[in-house]
Amino acid sequence: MPEPTIPRSVRFLVAPAATITLIGAFAGIAASTLGTPQILWATLGFSIIAAIAASMGISAGFGRFAAGYGMATLCIGGTIAVAAGFSMLDLKPNLHANPTLTRLLMPWVAIQVIASAGIVLGGAVAVLSRSTDSWRLLIRGLILLAPAGVIVAAMWVALSAIPEESKNGSVLSLAVLVGGGLIVGILVSIGGHYLIRAFEITSEEK
Questions:
Q1: Are 149 and 87 in contact (CB under 8 A)?
Q2: Which of 17, 97, 150, 183 has the most CB within a 10 Å radius?
Q3: Is pLDDT above 60 for 205?
Q4: 3 state SS of 5
Q5: Of the candidates 71, 70, 56, which has an alpha carbon nearest to the alpha carbon of residue 7?
Q6: pTM score
């Protein structure tokens, strides 16, 4: 079977996003080796991992991994996000002696995370664009998942407002958790099924 065609708009999203993360990874490598008195080995390692993933992302932006584009971009974007997150955890407490460098690097870490989300989004669009039915299933899933998110937020507000000291408060908290959790579970189960199905049908033979 011929490899699926990747939309040009997706490649224009993935390639620049991966390039941005590669620049951020090089900045992390430089900061971990030159920005502090001692080498920050954790940041150095995660920055190297991010650089490798970003290089693969650039290749994906030029059309590589077309047969498994969704999985490839998910792995690439996820790796970059995790590496950037752990780099931030290691960088922040170790750059107190160089606040200027901290102010320069921390925004780059956030940009890397946003760019990694763009890579994953591009892969999802590339996969979903293979079937018009996929978009309908995706919309149904999101319609069900949106109220689930609202309910979770409402539960958090309600639980924060319920006094924990009283017996009635414990009963109310349990009722909110059980009732809200049941509704959220149903919505997530059905909505998640639609989302999975949206990607699943793109690989089925027509």
A1: no
A2: 17
A3: no
A4: coil
A5: 70
A6: 0.68
